[in-house]
Structures are given as C-alpha cells and as structure tokens.
Amino acid sequence: MAFFLKTKLWQTGSLDWWAMIDNEDVYLGSREFPLPPEEGDEWVVKKSGDQFKVIDGEIKKIGTVEIIPEPWEI
What does residue 68 show for φ and ψ, rounded to 5 degrees? Predict the structure, then answer.
C-alpha cells in the first residue's frame, strides 16, 4: 500500500500494522492506526501505550502513556 510516507510499513494477516523505525520492527497498533495515515495524525497503541505521530511524512514515536483499561476490559 502506498500512503506517500517515508516510513516502510506493512499489515499482517491478523490486521496488525507494523513499521520499520530506526532499523527496528515497531508495532503501530490495529484498529487505532489511522487509515489513511496523513500528516499530523497522532495515535496511541492500546496494547503498549506507545504514542506515534506522522511528522514530515515519517511515522515517529513521540512517547509512551499509561493505558487505562475500559470498564469492559477489566
């Protein structure tokens, strides 16, 4: 898929999104991944708390936040 990004990304058969960031495979999420990813999009991966943003056509990790589970996930 071509999203006009500089970051190499792919989707697995289980519909998870991954990218090559700083020469490492990084999990970008599943449903939380924005489609199509556009400049300025920001999201948090629910499984890990990793926070990403599209900056200058590249997906960058901008931090990690604490994940608070929804009431139905407890």
Answer: -105, 115
Q: Kindly state the DSSP code that residue 39 receives in the 8-state scheme.
A: T
Is residue 52 within 8 Å of residue 42, measured between CB atoms? yes
Token digits of residue 15: 């519909």
Asked if 5 and 53 count as a contact pair (C-beta separation under 8 A), the reply is no
Tokens 């708390």 belong to which residue?
A: 49
Beta-strand (E) ranges in 30-67? 42-44, 50-55, 58-64
CA angle 29, 33, 38 (to 5 degrees): 145
DSSP element (H, E) containing 59: strand 58-64
pLDDT of residue 1: 52
Give per-residue pLDDT as tens, 53-69.
999 999 999 999 998 88
Predicted structure pTM score: 0.87
